[in-house]
Amino acid sequence: MSRSESSRPSSKKPTIYDLARITGVSPGTVSRVLNNRDKVKSETRDRVLRAATELNLKPQAAVRTRQVAILSEPEFPDRVEGYAATMTAHLSFAFSKRDIGVLQPTNPCEDLPGMFLDGVIAVTFGKALRALLAELEQRMPVVYLDNFALQPNELSVNSDHVQSGWLAARHFIERGRKKPAFLGGDFLPFAARLRGFKQALAEAGLPVDDRCTTLFGPEINHVSVVTRMIRAGADAIYAPGSSFQAIECLHILTYVMGLKVPQDVALIGGENEGISCFLNPPLTTIEEPLRDMAERAAAMLDSLTRGETVAEPQITLPVRLIERDSVA
Q: What's the predicted TM-score (pTM) here?
């Protein structure tokens, strides 16, 4: 070997043994850190993760289990029941079929920096978590669900919320309702549904009453909003979302205001599988394809964590109307 050949920098990729030597810990400890296992001191975990980042060390999936995090906003109530909980269950099953490990951080903003991950699925997210996700996108694939403020290079799987609003309003109109109302908080998913709702009203030549089609803030409770709509003459209400919004609206109409559904007020909600059909009356709903969304998102992240590209980085799936008895 010539002197020039011997002086060339090595092209050998670093291994966990190199990382163990640099950090002064055992290869087993390095393995536990890289696979997010317990029984490692926090200062040791931080030292290993910093060194791994500097070495650009990422073990091949063939010799370790790929791991992804499923994130939902801790402050949102649907984390335990409703949309986020249902979506997380579907995602966990989809990843288990692919032999991909799943982590669900209790507090993502605090826990994520101490984890070695291959990718992230973001189910629900507030401002702080959204900022952290933007940073994570620089070093790992991040797939969003129902994100309606996407940047051009971001990855997402959405259901067609504009179509949801349009289908609901159109169904009311076809059943002879003259003043449909929209019940939704001031969040982007509801705003997307409201656009479709207003579009259908405009197509039918019906006026838009702000008292019945304005998104409300967190300081306003549902009872006051529904009461305002009924006093304004609403004869139908669309209460979208898969976190029991329509069930609450049905309770307010029936037991707080003493009205009959659908005789006095027609009602369409978001589908809650195994619940909506057993209400009194059985609830007409707009079903979002949550299971299909989870499958598509898991398949996308599966490909990306293998180093592959995806043909469709932003996917929108159709919704469907399920007719029951809450619209006459």
A: 0.79
